[in-house]
Amino acid sequence: MKKKFFLLQLLSVISGFAFSQHFAVAKSGVFTPQQKKVLLLKDTALNKSLILFKTNLHVNTDGTPLSYHPFDLNGDEKALNNICNAVAVRKDGSNKNLCLSKETYKEALSVFARFRDSGFLKLPTGYSITWENVLVPQMVDGKKVPCVIKSGEYEGYFGSATSLRNGLSSDKGECDCNDQVNPLKIPALVLVGGSNNIVRKFGAKLGDLLIAYNPTNKHLVYAIINDFGPPNNLGEGSVLLNMKLRGDTTFPKKRKDTFKLSISSDIIIAVIPDSRTFQVEKPFTPENITSRVEQWLRECGFQTGQAYIDFLESSVVAKLK
């Protein structure tokens, strides 16, 4: 009886693997800023697609208030990131972001510190600061300023936003912190910015599900696209995504800890286009993201995560070189 059951299981895996072979390369292209190959796989019978590419992963912290602190701008003590990853500081009449150069980085911090010391009500003369893309705004004396949390576990930190929201109608928390797709709690990927890149052209959008695979240690992680990033970098994962892919269990406490979670080896990312509307559950959790991805995989013939890994390694990895 046990032998029969084993044979039935084996046949199920084999048939699922064969079914998955219906995925074939429909299009290919190159993400030109990093010269990385991108594949669009399609199963025309099922009308399902995958966008695949290999990339290393920087770390993104936006969405947790622990990211940025008004009095720890460099992330030396309690902030997980430096403020220059949330803002852009420019001299009047110039498009150059002072945050992006080692020569002007300290100047950028000094300018932002003066902005902070004014209660965020007055820009230093001769400078502009762009901050609303990441820091959550609030109205003070009729003026929009960065929201700073006044109580609770995040007291003193800036509210930090993600483009994808949990869709809460109540209990959003100060600075709407509970409504963000928190990178410490959710495995997530930042979608490369700009509209004229191959990943976006193949259909990847905010809220789409994805599968991340680390060939080095065989770790497979199901995740979601929760934000937009710069137009020149394919790979930026949330703190939890990178931790799971690396096999780390200790959360960062300051900037240096955060940056150590970067992954320099290639991770294989498979974005599932149009999955943002597939069996949606909110607020987003690792559990409901996993459930959605597993259901999508089963519908494609992948009965287990290992079956998907086998498909990658036998049919896809060589094509990404």
TrEMBL record:
Keywords: Signal. It comes from the Bacteria. Residues 1-20 form the signal peptide. This is Uncharacterized protein.
